[in-house]
Amino acid sequence: MSKSIDDPYFQSLLRELTSLPKETEWAEFKSNSIRAEDLGEYISALANSAALEGKTKAYMVWGVDDETHLISGTDFKPSLERHKQQELESWLLQNLEPKIDFTFNEFLSIENKPVVILEIPAAQHTPVRFLGIEYIRIGSYKKPLGKHAEKERSLWRVFDRKPWEFRIAKERCGADEVLSLIDYPSVFSLLSQPLPDGRMAILEYLTKERVVEKNDAGSWNITNLGAILFARELDAFRHLSRKAIRLIQYNGNNRYKTIKEQVGHKGYAVGFEGLIDYINNLLPTNEVIGKAFRSEVRMYPELSIRELVANALIHQDFNISGTSPMLELFDGRMEICNPGLPLVDIDRLLDSPPRSRNEGIASLMRRMKICEERGSGIDKVVIETEIYQLPAPHFEVYQDHTKVTLFAHRDFKDMDSEEKVRAAYLHCVLKYLDKSPMNNTTLRERFGIDEKNSAMISRIIKQAVQDNRIKPYDPSVGSKAMRYIPIWA
User: Fold this and answer.
1) Position with higher pLDDT, 211 vs 69
2) Mapping DSSP to helix (H, G, I), strand (E, B) and coil, where does residue 420 land?
3) Which contiguous run of DSSP H or E holds residue 134?
4) In terms of DSSP H, where are the helices of 4-118?
5) What is the spatial distance between Cα 354 and Cα 379, in angstroms, rounded to a whole number?
6) CA–CA separation, 13 vs 22, rounded Å?
7) pTM of the predicted model, to two decimals?
8) Could you say which of 197, 238, 282, 384 is the most buried, measured as most Cβ atoms within 10 Å of its Cβ?
């Protein structure tokens, strides 16, 4: 790809690279073309070394003396090079695994001398191989990674600790471009911080929150965290546009007829309140009769919707491509689905210590009061369904996705056996967490059943025991005083 002589990014990048005191593990200088096989090995070595050094990119530069770093010019023109009857770039890409988005940039330096800069993304999930072999830089030399066990172990440790949210969504942005792409006033508003004076003060704060970072050329990169939470338009970030939440409303209780479909376009944090308002405005109200009150409420408690939508956004697996969080509204239920499997057993969501694969996003969402404090959200969802005597939510795992279903109000007589047992199990977990084991009375109150019908509750408890969902707290106690705890307790 040819660049103009006055391309500011590449002129700045060239100055930064030539100012290095010597070649590094992530920068290599050449005068003219080299063997295609050597070039493939360099790409593997530099990509892996950049990851090891904490760099987002590595570089090969042609037209710079590798000793003095003075610009000498080059006759290497990658756009015209061929190897084995293929374009050079195509042949290299074909023999690299995994495929990486390297780019040749041909341009003229300030001295009007031809220069080529090859930008190589750092390896992300696994070492980059060329012709089946992984390479690494040892000083300024490329070596097979398999012969340097400590480097290999260190590289895998880097992959384990480089979260998706701190990788790059958009690179080499000027200050004005950053502030046009990121809804920075909302960043400060949501975090209850005063908006500072001046662009640099704003960018310094965004850097501190890891929304942006400085790159090797002195301009700015926007992180995935910054884009997914604070983008004015997610479509401005190519690989994030498919991560926008989808909302579909159906007529009836199947997917045959769609009433409306809406796809979010803002970052999750800046668009969250608008999304919740939009969902609530689609929902009818129900009359709820509690112990001492009668009121009109939305079909589903707002706190439950907020927490489950926030969980779907926060805990998704962003490395699963081609899919996004989705919320589907039916006449009698709401399904909230996100890519990725839960990090704890699906039956232990209420009691297990919380884990998140996107802790940077989760932390910011909690600080912005978008979701509940650590570990309390799912508990409150279940508690809310009990307060409003709704059927128990259903947590499911299927095809690399996690789905939670909320159900509209149904009378006890209209619930099937599985729904009643599920409600009994979740109620039992809540009581166990409160240090007060479940009994017939507490479960009867959960369902809003009169004392004279306690035998119906006994049958549910018996079925839950048979299904290995709950067990007696003290089997020696008589059946009338029997209390119950979860099967795993």
Assistant:
1) 211
2) helix
3) strand 133-138
4) 8-18, 36-52, 88-94
5) 12
6) 16
7) 0.73
8) 384
Cβ 421 vs Cβ 460: under 8 Å: yes
What is the rounded (10 degree) CA torsion for 317, 404, 329, 275?
-50
| Structure-token pair, residue 424 | 């009994």
Q: How is residue 149 annotated by DSSP?
A: H
pLDDT score of 228 more than 70: yes
* pLDDT tens-place string over residues 142-169: 999 989 888 888 888 887 777 889 888 9
Contact 116, 74 (CB under 8 A): yes
CATH of 8-162, one of 3.30.950, 3.30.450, 1.20.120, 3.40.50: 3.30.950
The residue type of 9 is: Y
Residue 300 reports pLDDT greater than 80: yes
DSSP 167-218: SEEEEEE-HHHHHHHB-HHHHHHHTT-PPPSSHHHHHHHHHHTTSEEE-TTS
Mean pLDDT over 302-310 rounds to: 92
Give the residue range(s) of CATH 3.30.950 domains in the chain: 8-162
Span 244-407 CATH architecture: 2-Layer Sandwich (3.30)
User: Could you tell me which of 9, 105, 125 has the C-alpha nearest to residue 63?
Assistant: 105
Query: How would residue 99 be classed by pLDDT, with cut points 50, 70 and 90?
Result: confident
Note the pLDDT tens digit of each residue in 23-62: 788 999 998 888 999 999 999 999 999 999 888 889 999 9
Q: Where in the chain is the domain with CATH 3.30.565.60?
A: 244-407
Residue of 187, 175, 170 lying closest to 224 (CA atoms):
170
DSSP 226-275: HHHHHBS-GGGSGGGGGGS-EEEEESSSSSSSEEEEEE--S-HHHHHHHH
How is residue 202 written in tokens? 């704003």
Distance CA 199, CA 41 (A): 42
Average the pLDDT over 390-408 and give the result.
93
Residue 2, pLDDT score: 46
Written out in words, the top-level CATH class of the domain with range 412-486 is mainly alpha
